[in-house]
Amino acid sequence: EDPETAFCTLANREDLNPEEGSIHHCLYQFTHNEKLTETNKLLCDVCTQRHYGPKKDIKSEKKYVYTNAKKQMLISLAPPVLTLHLKRFQQAGFNLRKVNRHIKFPEVIDLAPFCTAKCKNVAAGNTKVLYSLYGVVEHSGTMRSGHYTAYAKMRSMNDRLPDLVLRGQLPPASETEPVKGQWFHISDTHVQAVSASKVLSSQAYLLFYERLL
C-alpha cells in the first residue's frame, strides 16, 4: 500500500462523532489507529537488514531491529451481506460475565468511514457504502443458559445481491432508504409481526445487513 493513503478512509472519520453505546461507536473503536511503541514495536525486516546485513545471517545471530509503527483495521472489500457480531461477554476475574447493555443500531448504516480509501467493490467517486438491516439475533439469559430468538424482515428480493456475489458488479447508487418490508419476531415455533421500533430496541447479538449502494 502507498504509505500516504494506507490510513485514509473512504469518508472522513472525524465527521462521524459516534454516540457512545452505538454500533457506530463500536466500529469506530474497532478501526481506530493504534500506535505500536515500546514492547509493542514492530519487527522491521528492512531496518534489520540495513543494520546487520542479509537475512540469512540474521537468523543465526538472532539480531532484530524493532521500530515504532501504526496499525489500523479497515475494510478493504465491501461485502454484499454485512454480518456484525457483538461481543456480549466480558472478563470478571476468572469468570465470564454477559453484557446486557443495549447497543443502538440503525436500519441503514454507512460503512464508508470504516473502509479504506481504495475499497474494492465501491464505484469511483462514491463516498457512501450503505447497508439496510434485514435480520437480528437476540440472546436472553446468562452465559450458562438462555434462549436465542430472531427478528427477520420479509421484503422483496434484492436483485443486486446475486450480481455482487457472483460477478462482483456494483449496485446502482440510487437508494438510500431502508428496504421496505414487514418485520417478524421468531421464537421457536412462534412467529409474530412487530414494528421496526421493537426491532431497534432489542439487545442485538448478531446484525445482518444487505448492500444498498
From TrEMBL:
Keywords from the named record: Hydrolase
One cellular component term from this protein's GO annotations in UniProt: nucleus
UniProt keyword annotation of Membrane present: no
One Pfam family cited in the UniProt record for this chain: UCH
Annotated ranges, domain USP: 1-212
Domain of life where this protein originates: Eukaryota
InterPro entries assigned to the protein according to its UniProt record, in alphabetical order: Papain-like_cys_pep_sf (IPR038765), Peptidase_C19 (IPR050164), Peptidase_C19_UCH (IPR001394), USP (IPR028889), USP_CS (IPR018200)
Gene Ontology annotations of biological process type: protein deubiquitination
GO molecular function: cysteine-type deubiquitinase activity
PROSITE patterns: USP_2, USP_3
Name of the protein this chain belongs to: UBP16 hydrolase
Originating species: Zapornia atra (Henderson crake)
Gene: Usp16_1
